[in-house]
Amino acid sequence: MDTQQSLAGSATGTFQATEPSKAKIKTQSIRLLASGLMGQLSSKEPLVSLRKSGDFQDCYDVNLHMYLPDHARNVHLDENISDCGVIEIWNGPIEVRDINIIYDNPAGHPEIYAYSLWEIKFRYCVEGREMPAIRVRYVIGDPETTNGTVTSVEKT
User: Fold this and answer.
1) Residues 101/46, Cβ–Cβ less than 8 Å
2) DSSP state, 89?
3) E strands within 7-147?
4) How far apart are CA 110 and CA 127, in angstroms?
5) What gap in Å lies between CA 81 and CA 86, rounded to an integer?
6) Among residues 2, 36, 47, 89, which is most buried (max CB within 10 A)?
7) φ, ψ for residue 143 (rounded to 5)?
């Protein structure tokens, strides 16, 4: 059996848009798992699991866990997941599907000391060309604080 390690890398590189590849979100759930988490976090980037759906052809299941500031408001998944582009990661350029998690920072909290753990699960189906990876990032309104990650399906 030939096994290839899945890609994972920072999504902070320059994103060059390419031709969109139509895809639609079929199912999704958003849950707040815990709040008031204090101390040093291991990662402020979203932790992403991506796998090809065993039930449907051309569909993918995504499971995200992310630490967001306590009292973050309006947490949701951007419905437009058809945007694609090329991004430079540690092992070279790769074309990715762009997936955005949007939220509003808590009002009146200039310094954040506590975080909440959120989970977003969704399935998307590709109607255009497939991408070898996805880029998941936060859209907070301030590009300096936007974090993200690039993830691919592990090939076996």
Assistant:
1) yes
2) E
3) 8-10, 15-18, 23-37, 47-52, 59-69, 73-77, 84-89, 92-104, 115-126, 133-139
4) 42
5) 15
6) 89
7) -60, -25
What is the total residue count of the chain? Answer: 156
- Name the CA radius of gyration of the chain, rounded: 16
The tokens of 143 are what?
């590009």
Q: What is the pLDDT of residues 102-145, one digit of tens each?
A: 988 766 655 667 888 999 999 999 998 999 999 998 887 554 44
32-70 pLDDT, tens digit each: 999 888 877 767 788 999 999 888 889 999 999 998 888
Indicate the pTM of the whole model: 0.77
Q: How many CA atoms lie within 13 A of 141 on its CB side?
A: 8
